[in-house]
Design goal:
mainly alpha
Length: 448
């Protein structure tokens, strides 16, 4: 079994640093959502916070990608952490000078100033998210990058596992005060630690194609993507996947809470998050094989099949097993997509391409989430409560509001399986698969 090769010690130090920063940034996001609801009891306010995160992530991806490409990677990481630290410091100042009663009003200017400063700090951390896969390209030899990407997935899973617990405990203990203080301390520690890490940067920070065209150069990035057969199709496929994935975002909590209490649901999510950790570790041990494009599509077929199967019975056990398998396979899909981009996109452009992909994918999910919620509420739920579906499907599928949500999951999964199967048979994906498989073969031959 091939182990990860390259500047492994540096890679592990960056992973540890990224884990610390990611845990704290996501803790701030989760905590402010919990805290705002407890202060205002406004579901609308918490929904706006999620909308702010998604919109800002989609809007800044391309710009952040140009920052990653246009600067040394260590400077991008340090700048990201420093920006988050400054925003959190500003939020802490607002928190200290604002009377506590003002935070109970969902229309309070001080409340939204605090929220925006905290969310800007969280979003600044996305620079690191874009920089991490480019650092895999920089530090790790090509034939073991898939394994390194698996470890990145493990870090992501660990982040989700610990964040909900930390944020809940801190908010219950001391509101946002302890959250912000801990976040600032952790970011300061991360900046200090990274200052002692030496990253072997490549000499050229800019590629010739972007010379004189400004930092973002969206047209040049699109030209690079169009020049790789099948890459545009891959990004469009990821957008479509995220478009369908918005159904998951909008309805998963509602479906789970229709089956168990909120306490059990929160605990269950903590357990399910371990699936991402296990999946990432397995990828780091086994790799992705010679055909990451084919693997990516096959994994997506399996993910959509899970979406079809788990809602067939109104059972928390079916849901738990289905969600765990979903989490287990997610690192394979993420690692495969990153490995493909690392193989076919020039290093000097990878930040922009990863940023563009992030913007495109993040823009798709909230659109579906906003659309599917009212459709489910006013069409599918009545359909399965006292409509034709309840009468004809009810005897074997069940009736009620939860079965209306379940039907949306099943139909979404069927669409996903069909779309992914068509993609497997399409010419663009065959060409991209041949290119990535050929690149791997050339690398292995050169190593002999």
């Amino acid at each position: 079994m091939t182990s990860i090769q390259g500047h492994v010690k540096t890679f592990y130090q960056i992973l540890a640093n990224t884990l610390l920063v990611s845990v704290m940034n996501f803790t701030v996001w989760f905590a402010v959502t919990f805290w705002v609801y407890l202060q205002t009891r406004s579901v609308f306010a918490t929904g706006v916070i999620s909308g702010i995160f998604l919109v800002l992530t989609a809007a800044t991806g391309i710009w952040f990608g140009s920052i990653v490409d246009g600067h040394r990677k260590k400077a991008a990481l340090q700048g990201s952490a420093a920006a988050s630290l400054l925003f959190y410091a500003g939020a802490f100042a607002v928190y200290l000078v604002t009377p506590a009663d003002d935070f109970h009003d969902p229309a309070s200017v001080a409340l939204w100033a605090l929220i925006l400063l905290l969310m800007f700090g969280v979003i600044a951390g996305n620079i690191r998210t874009i920089a991490t896969p480019t650092l895999v390209t920089l530090l790790i030899e090509e034939d073991t990058r898939d394994r390194a990407n698996g470890l990145v997935g493990t870090v992501t899973g660990t982040t989700f596992l610990t964040t909900s617990v930390i944020s809940g405990v801190l908010v219950a203990f001391d509101g946002m005060r302890s959250v912000i203080i801990l976040a600032m301390a952790a970011l300061g520690l991360a900046i200090l630690h990274l200052s002692f890490v030496t990253i072997p940067e490549r000499a050229a920070a800019h590629d010739a194609s972007s010379a004189g065209k400004g930092g973002v150069d969206l047209r040049g990035t699109l030209r690079i993507i169009a020049g790789v057969p099948g890459l545009t199709a891959l990004i469009l496929f990821s957008m479509f996947n995220n478009f369908l994935g918005g159904v998951f975002m909008a309805l998963a909590d509602a479906y789970g809470l229709s089956l168990v209490s909120v306490q059990a649901w929160g605990l269950l999510w903590g357990v399910l998050s371990t699936g991402m950790i296990v999946g990432g570790v397995v990828v780091s041990r086994t790799g992705l094989g010679r055909q990451p494009v084919r693997l990516l599509l096959l994994i997506n077929v399996a993910l959509w099949a899970i979406i079809i199967v788990f809602p067939l019975r109104a059972s928390i056990w079916w849901l738990a097993v289905g969600f765990y398998l979903y989490m287990l396979l997610m690192p394979y899909a993420e690692a495969a997509e990153q490995t493909i981009l690392q193989k076919v996109v020039p290093y000097e452009r990878q930040g922009r391409v990863f940023g563009l992909a992030q913007s495109a994918e993040q823009a798709a999910s909230p659109l579906t989430a906003f659309l599917i919620s009212p459709i489910t509420q006013f069409v599918f739920i009545p359909f399965m409560v006292d409509g034709w579906g309840a009468r004809e499907l009810g005897p074997w599928f069940g009736t009620g509001a939860d079965r209306g949500i379940a039907l949306v999951f099943v139909l979404t999964g069927i669409i996903g399986v069909i779309a992914t199967t068509l993609a497997l048979m399409s010419r663009p994906y065959r060409r991209l698969n041949a290119r990535t498989a050929g690149a791997r073969a050339e690398t292995e031959a050169a190593a002999l």
